[in-house]
Amino acid sequence: MGEYEPKIEAHFPQTVLAAKGVTVRLECFALGNPVPTITWRKMSGNIPKKARLRKSQAVLEIPNIQLEDSGSYECKAENTRGGTAFRGHLQVYTLPQWISMINDTQLDSGEQLHWECRATGKPRPTYRWLRNGEPLNSQSRVEMVNGELIIHRLQQADSGMYQCIAENKYGAIYSSAELKILASAPMFSTNPFRLIATVGKDVSLECRPRASPKPRISWRKNDRRVQPSRRIMLLRNNTLRIINSSRSDEGSYVCRAENQFGSAELTTVLLVKEPMRVELSPIRVEVTVGESVVLSCKVTHDPSLDVSFLWLLNNQPLNTQQEGGHFEYIQTQSSTADMMIRSILLKHAGKYGCRAQTRADSVLAEWWHLFPGPPGPPGVVIVEEITDTTATLSWSHGVDNHSPITTYNVQARSPVSLGWQTVKTDPEPVTGNMESAMAVDLNPWVEYEFRVVATNGIGTGDPSASSRVVRTKEAVPSVAPVNVRGGNGRRHELVISWEPVSEEFQNGEGFGYIVAFRANGTRGWKEKMVTSADSTTYKYRDETFPPLTPFEVRVGVYNNKGDGPFSEVVTVFSAEGEPREPPSEVQAFAISSSEIKVMWKPPNPGPGRPQGYEVSSWKDMEQEEMGKKKRTKGNETTMLLTGLDGNTQYLISVKGFNNVGQGPASSPIKISTKKNAPSLPPGNLMWIQEGNNVSLSWDPVKARDNESEVIGYKVLLRQEGRGHSQVMRTPNSAVVLTLPEGGTYIIEVRAVSEGGEGAASTQVRVLTSSGVRAKSGQLSVQNLPPGLAWTALFLSLVVPSFPL
Fold it and tell me: Nearest CA to 278 among 303, 254, 296?
């Protein structure tokens, strides 16, 4: 078929409706030759970033769709022959959701109700109102406009259950609330009480009855109507306010409330007392951090009134229980309160207050106390200049905490240091009036950060914030490697090792090592460069090296600035060779049809000491390469070979090995595995049960020609549902078992031979009865005359009970 322009064969609908939050898939499938390319666009904006293209861009998938994702979408198919497009509209709708709802309301008759409910949704929801399940209609007193409900001049009949319904064509939501209309005679919730005031203070006598509708209020004093004046005012909330009270204002005040349903009165007795006075001591405190002080608060007050005290620190109540035992409240007299401060801290400085309070008035007296202590942290440290061993630093003074700063200490930290360390400075010492110093004797090419600590006559304060991290400049290395040593390696190799120089002492980039060595008794040094700063080993190979040749060795350092010092000269030996002799006296013993134990003696001591042994085993008439090889762990001189074939002759040899290589193998020896275990299981199992005693017998197993002779039998017993088994061996084909009471037991029998265990017999299940409790978990065996068919062997078995 020739080329043709694209044609859209399948596409999404002209209008797609989707609920907010779902995943929308818009699909366009087009045919054409060449295969057309599908592209998408949104006509009024950009395609959402969360959108994904699927199936070779034929599907536009928009997850968690939102209102702003609405709009017209176009898919376009194009190839070299032309293009075509389809456009559809995606419309996102939402069910109504509440923004604000109505709540239960209580109002007095005659008042106005104003409820408002608001909801969002697309399309925008409309509102309806119900009362007691019936539609609510607009009346002269009832207004309903766009979610608002207003009822004027409430009546008792307006009480009921109201519902606001917000709905669009996709759903509706409801908000319910109860309206209660109150109608009651005045009533006071409090009984007559006494009010105590002090001379010169303002007094408020409250009158707050509960009534519906609101009652009319009147006041009288000592049975005479109270007349408002400049000093006596009746406030809008019915409170009687007395300005600048005096002793003449004492008396009995009555508030009367009445409406159409009745009336009520509240009596308040007003007493006017002399005000309190507070004295504080000491006015000036001279103690330092770590010392103690007692602050005293004494009051003069009307003796008929009880006084209470409250201590404050910086306008907050002082809780002695939460201050770590530093504060103790002491009151020895009713008119005096003391506060002891022990082991004063810097944070204890501030504004102390003593509040004395009676039923008549409350008086607060305050005074400031400053406690000298160690200085605060200096300002941030700035590195002004850096060299290979020095750093010029500056900082700003911190607070001295009421004691002049005497000295500063400069501290430094690097990635390899143990925390912050005090460094030497120029000048030394740095006095308290200075704001700069030079740190000296630093290591070259090391990253440092610095901080400063201030000291005054009281003590040493907290450190400053640390400076930015800076690196000192490069210098020639000054520290040589240590612990230079050698050994190991392969034949004809000289291996030289050392401890690497830490980054702190490398002094610059391009750090490396110079390895120098010479054979003992020679003069010229052979030097090799090792360019990695992390290297710890150098290997030199020379085919002329005899094993264990002594060399003089030293290791030096260098970097981009030049060569540094060498280590002390040490003697190192070249590598030894592989083992030269095979193991001797190799022996092998067949353990079973699949196991052979091999033993040998190590070769004579000498160069090429074995670090382990490798045992090779292969079948007779096969090549050694087709066999198996197994290595020992260390210098063991025995090995158990497993997984072998039964009744088969094997050849076995042993060789030593070390990190240089393998030595010669011993001469092969021949050994045959034992015949296989009998393949037939014990048959014709018969058993007789008498109570908890079970007599069990079976037909003897006859071994085949290629199988090991039977030397006995193994009886396995376990309680059903448990993995643990009891094992009994017998040379005969019958046993008597005594089983514990109350359980189901599974019994099976296997033949035993030199080649191993044979196949298992069919299983026997025995159910024992309850009644006799087991006393022991031990297994007892009693040999009986072999001539008895059912009593060849008697086994008394008590299986211990295990928790289920």
Answer: 296
